[in-house]
Design goal:
7-stranded mixed β-sheet; 14 strands; globular; 27% strand; binds zinc ion; 22% helix
Length: 248
């Protein structure tokens, strides 16, 4: 039986763990591949709460190199070293600098293991907005989003099993999302604040004002910060919950 195409929310919180929520991670299961979109530091807790077998993971796709989005990669390495045997390669797709930052983080957290060869290969691939990538039948289009100036930050438009998932990554609001999310089956959009307006994150009033213009079939707000969580009774758009499974 082919796997049904679906997305599971593994982490729906912001960098500060607002509301006790976990760091960003979304599991995509499709007929040809099982992969992560972002891999925050709490990835193992999230996988184990959902009884997901880490051995099934084919690859990882990182939006940007902030800890709440890529900090879980070394913990996955530790899982594969000591708990869930892995000998097949683990491809890691991400923005420029992914290999350097992941290796440095692994060494900082587990110095000896970071310096020793691993029994499985980690294959790093840099994504570029000009070159869409296809991995195991999954077409990944990275596009630059306005988050922080010191990093290249991506959103993704992912096409899998005839379905389209758009992920905002961390970003300020940009009208580009109107075009990017056209006909998407799912748009996972960050919503970090409410009263506080920032160039680097989206506030609830900003997304609420534009939601009607988005021609996606389902809009899910995630990367939820303390402000929107405090006022969730006033929110009419759908909020992500950890463990939420979205069939596509
Ligand atoms: Zn973040
Ligand atoms: Zn960020």
């Amino acid at each position: 039986m082919p796997t049904a195409t679906r997305v599971t929310v593994l982490g729906s919180g912001d960098a500060f763990g607002a509301g006790g929520r976990l760091h960003s991670a979304y599991l995509v299961e499709s007929s040809g591949a099982t992969f992560l979109v972002d891999c925050g530091t709490t990835i193992l807790q999230a996988m184990k709460r959902g009884a997901f077998d880490p051995a099934r993971l084919d690859f990882i796709c990182l939006s940007h190199l902030h800890g709440d989005h890529f900090g879980g990669v070394p913990y996955l390495f530790m899982e594969y070293l000591y708990q869930t045997c892995r000998d097949r390669p683990l491809p890691v797709y991400g923005p420029p600098g992914t290999e350097r930052r992941v290796k440095a983080l692994f060494s900082a957290l587990y110095e000896r293991q970071g310096d020793e060869p691993m029994p499985f290969q980690v294959r790093y691939h840099e994504l570029s907005p000009t070159t869409p990538t296809t991995v195991q039948g999954v077409a990944i289009e990275a596009f630059a989003v306005p988050h922080v100036s010191e990093l290249v930050c991506f959103g993704f438009r992912i096409r899998v099993d005839g379905k389209t998932i758009v992920y905002s990554g961390d970003t300020g609001w940009t009208d580009e999302f109107v075009e990017r999310t056209r006909n998407a089956d799912l748009f996972i959009c960050e919503c970090s604040t409410w009263e506080t307006r920032l160039d680097i994150h989206i506030s609830y009033p900003e997304i609420a004002a534009r939601a009607a213009e988005l021609k996606c079939r389902r809009l899910l707000l995630s990367h939820l910060g303390a402000e929107p969580l405090r006022r969730r009774d006033e929110i009419s758009l759908e909020l992500a919950e950890e463990g939420l499974v979205i069939p596509l």
